[in-house]
Amino acid sequence: MEDNKSTGTLNFIEKIIEKDIENNKNEGKVVTRFPPEPNGYLHIGHAKSICLNFGLAEKYKGRCHLRFDDTNPAKEEIEYIKSIKEDVAWLGFDWGKHEYYASDYFDRLYNIALKLIKKGKAYVDSLTPEEIREYRGTLTSPGKNSPDRERSVEENIDLFERMKKGEFEDGKYLLRAKIDMASPNLNMRDPALYRIKRMTHHRTGDMWCIYPMYDFTHPLSDAFEGITHSVCTLEFEDHRPLYEWAVEESGEKIKPQQIEFARLNLNYTIMSKRKLLELVEKEDVSGWDDPRMPTISGIRRRGYTPESIRDFASRIGVAKSNSTVDFALLEHCLREDLNMKAQRVMAVLDPLKIVITNYPEDKTEMMEADNNPEDINMGKRMVPFSREVYIEKDDFMENPPKKYFRLSPGKEIRLKHAYYITCTEIIKDPGTGEILEVHCTYDPESRGGGTADGRKVRGTSHWVSAFHAFEADVRLYSHFFKSENPGDVTGNFRDDLSENSLEVLRGCKLEPSLKEAVPGQSFQFLRKGYFCADSVDSKPGLPVFNRTVSMRDTWAKLQRDAAKNKEHKDIKSR
Ligand code: ATP
Ligand code: MG
């Protein structure tokens, strides 16, 4: 993994670009594009590509186009286009007026296809799909020429025009490039350029019944738009000769250069729109924006910030070989960002009632609390305190082991922003023995932390006043898949879906200020993690919270452990 953020060195794509600028290639211009196929919602892998393409354009004062690769009408939907635009904008990128659709080029593409036929570089083939496969040959043996390969130019033009007019049924003919059936690169063995397919297109309607293939459309669209650097993922490496062939044939002035980089893989995560669609269709999730989905809309709803994703993208850098990134790194970037931004609040997720027996029954005191100790500009707020408060059940133990510093019989703890309390009595249900409430006394001198005699306590609990708390649902999430590489054992990724990736906690006691939480707003629930008011299910005055991420930073711990190990080794080797 190249971390070009911390080292300040150029990644390999930047090196290529800087050399091109130096040589005044394309008059020193840098134009990139992000070219999604509108057949699903964008995921975090796309975010890497978006950050890269828009980032390069920003860095080199060029521009980045948003182009919808909509040549496959069967799978494309307006809903996807809308969501893609929303997601790219949310990540913080602006394509301005440069919004394009491959379908806008259908006429130009058709004319170039005709030009190719006239030059003897394309022909109409009538082989069936099985025959085509058979004629193609294999990686180790050359292909065979189709009997139609030597069809005359006139006949090819006539057939191609009639294909366009709709005279033939779907699949009857194919327009193929005439390149080389013996090429060691299978992509160069007379690849298909156009197929007959009767489908209503979301933009061109029923105007066309022939559609250009991706490998033909993509390079030409790049060339038409004057893209200088066409950045794509590694699986297109073998398509590069075909890309260059098509660009050459386009006759456009700017000849875009295809550059491949390694796609993002994350453990415990699938990143394929086809598979994500399956989760949606089989109702494993509530939709594309289910907070467990690795889609941009899912993680946004979960509470991820655009800044954290951009930071993540820059930390993982770009490389030329595939690898898998630890999900913990993404969470680490998120915590770092939320740590600076999220207001601290108190919320008790699994409440235990504490009654402070020496505190007046009808008294309420307002306790001052920092909104964010990392940023004093975020100010303070007042939190109500009263005779009855809730703390977390696991902040109390009747028979604690040694070194348990939280509340237990006879022991004293601090209530954050409030008083010291000492446990005096446990009230149990006489029938079941279940703990109903715990009685304590408080030290009136200890308000805000200190005591008259300077005694210290080790444990601090967060709390919420029982009289002022409001109840809400809180959803906790864990890895959506049980396996780091979903489907690696059985071949079906759905076999690895975790049964408990979502846990809904009802009746959580939240501090009153949270009642006004705005959907999408993030908070740190002290000691419990970062949470976000759900943007779909929250109602005014009745928010529902999603846990975005817990407090435990496994990535930071890994880094610390690695540093420690290194230190040990260094000492040993001295
Ligand atoms: P999927 O396999 O999820 O369907 P795709 O590559 O078919 O993805 P496109 O809509 O064609 O989806 O992708 C748009 C752009 O995003 C392409 O340039 C593609 O290379 C890039 N991209 C897709 N997945 C990743 C990924 N995991 N990491 C980096 N870039 C990606
Ligand atoms: Mg694709």
Explain how this protein is built.
- The protein is an alpha/beta fold and 574 residues long.
- The protein folds into three domains: 12-261, 3-Layer(aba) Sandwich (Rossmann fold), CATH 3.40.50.620; 273-343 and 472-556, Ribosomal Protein L25, Chain P (Beta Barrel); 347-462, Ribosomal Protein L25, Chain P (Beta Barrel), CATH 2.40.240.10.
- It has 14 helices and 27 strands.
- The strands form seven sheets. It has a seven-stranded mixed sheet, covered by helices on one side.
- Helix 9 (240-250) links the parallel strand 8 (229-233) and strand 9.
- It is elongated and about 100 Å long.
- Bound molecules: adenosine-5'-triphosphate (ATP) and magnesium ion.
- The site of adenosine-5'-triphosphate (ATP) has 15 residues, from helix 3, strand 8 and helix 10.
